[in-house]
Amino acid sequence: MGTDESGRKRTPSDRSSREWCEEALTRLDAGRPESALDAARHAADLDPGSEWAHRLISLAHERLGRDAEALPAAERAVELARGSWQARLRLAAVLRRTPGRWAEAVEQAGLARKFAPEQPGPEVMLGDLALLRGEHARAERSYLAALAADPDDRQARVNLGLALLRWEPPRRHHDPAWPIDPRESGRARRALEIWARQVRLLLAVATPAIAACALLLGRGTEARLAGWGVLLLLVPLTLRQARRVGLWTYVAAMLRRDPWLGVSVVSAVLSVIAFAAWLVLGAVRVPSLLDPVWAGLAGIVVLGRPALAGVRALAESWRGRPLRALAVTAPARESERAARRNVGVTLWIVLGRTWSVLMTLAAGALAVEPRAAVAAVAVPFPMVRGYLRARHRGDPWLAGATWLVVAAAVACAAGGLLAGTPGGAWAWRAGLGALGAVALVFAVRGLRAWWRGGPGPSRSSLLMCDLPVGAGPSVALEPEVRQTFSYARSIVLSYGDALGPRVAGAVASVTSSGELRLIAETAAWEAIEADPRVAVFATDPLQRRFWVEVRGIARADSDVLRVTPKEVLVGEFPGRHQRR
């Protein structure tokens, strides 16, 4: 508890509002949001005008998963300090989780950047808002601006890596700017997924069963009738899932935002068409070269889930710039869990890209000119360099797959050099076997992660960094500063406009929340609307040598300007001063 100046032990009731805020922040950092909420409420009770206390209340509610309760406290903080960039940032963080208020979140983050362009936090928030909507180029620009302000910002580094990878959020089908709850679009997506899965599974089971009845038992007519019965069974199944979708006005946009969901639905529709065509072709007896049994089987296999999964894994390995993402994210891996996880997944992506290049090169060399496989030895170089630079040692599966790829490249190159000899044939077998082993390791690693519920080697395991924002302390006006503005005979307002800096006289008062209220000339209002950063200067007539300068953000409120302090300078003439 500590002691006061007289040596008496201090009790919790002796603490000031700012001390309770500091205690709340300590408890938040220790992972005790419920206890932090109590401390922040004590601070707000002692000083209802403390915007810092209300920001901490909002943050504690957010940590507890109570977004609806976090919003009023964040809005109250903005009301108390309209020029506080931290209050604006806190409100933006809450609004982005509130359905229908995404545009307001972007506006609040934009104001925070306008109020504090030297801070990385507003740029990080704008980058997060763009990233969650899939606007990767805009997110990349914001994160780079944040890193220009603070090269050590962990959140900017991790999320810039995601933007470079062209990462999609888990709910990629949902646009956060839509005025609907994500749970509603999630139910619609789930219904579409279930319908597509049920259709593909039912047809995949029915096709070999019908083929077996027709070919092995000689019951072609009965088998085709059973096939038409399967199609009729799809009608009630489709109607049931269609009722569960509900949000049909958003379905087209959902399919555009989530291309793989669209591919899944379209493949199910094509499977139904292929199955019906197969039954019709079987009835009219197409020549054996185009036997409908084998044509139908091939069509359903091509459109089936395993083929789609393979195509998706291959396509996702070629999205974005993983090597640059590694270079950006790796420096933050020691201090941020999301960075360590994302580095591992990114290395798997690089490995998948290298594997696909080697497979293509090997197939082309075997089909055209075996000696061309010599180039395979250079293919793994970027992958190995990225792996060694990242110094990622937490995944032995990744290490094994990496060196298998290197071995495959060396073996294929040897096969090309020794083309036409027994040694070359064995080298080719070893290289192709190593490439097959890499695919097996990837599949087993993914199944292991699925079974244990942990992060796997695919893009779905990438994690966005979302650190708490808006918790920093506000700038307090000490009693001597308040006294200066209360007794000063002249107060000077400094602001900037298109022609340069301007100085104007003003009349000021200090509110209980620590804001300055100014009455200034009309010309200042228009300039401050464009650039709200101002400085207010005053001298204390009771202490002739004492002066105060408050730098802050001015916002118009009725017939006065409200200035929220960002920095306070005090000193004595002729110039000695200190920052507060």
From TrEMBL:
<keyword id="KW-0812">Transmembrane</keyword>
<feature type="transmembrane region" description="Helical">
    <location>
        <begin position="199"/>
        <end position="217"/>
    </location>
</feature>
<keyword id="KW-1133">Transmembrane helix</keyword>
<feature type="region of interest" description="Disordered">
    <location>
        <begin position="1"/>
        <end position="21"/>
    </location>
</feature>
<protein>
    <submittedName>
        <fullName>Uncharacterized protein</fullName>
    </submittedName>
</protein>
<dbReference type="InterPro" id="IPR011990">
    <property type="entry name" value="TPR-like_helical_dom_sf"/>
</dbReference>
<feature type="transmembrane region" description="Helical">
    <location>
        <begin position="426"/>
        <end position="444"/>
    </location>
</feature>
<dbReference type="InterPro" id="IPR019734">
    <property type="entry name" value="TPR_rpt"/>
</dbReference>
<feature type="transmembrane region" description="Helical">
    <location>
        <begin position="400"/>
        <end position="420"/>
    </location>
</feature>
<feature type="transmembrane region" description="Helical">
    <location>
        <begin position="260"/>
        <end position="281"/>
    </location>
</feature>
<keyword id="KW-0472">Membrane</keyword>
<feature type="transmembrane region" description="Helical">
    <location>
        <begin position="223"/>
        <end position="239"/>
    </location>
</feature>
<feature type="transmembrane region" description="Helical">
    <location>
        <begin position="293"/>
        <end position="315"/>
    </location>
</feature>
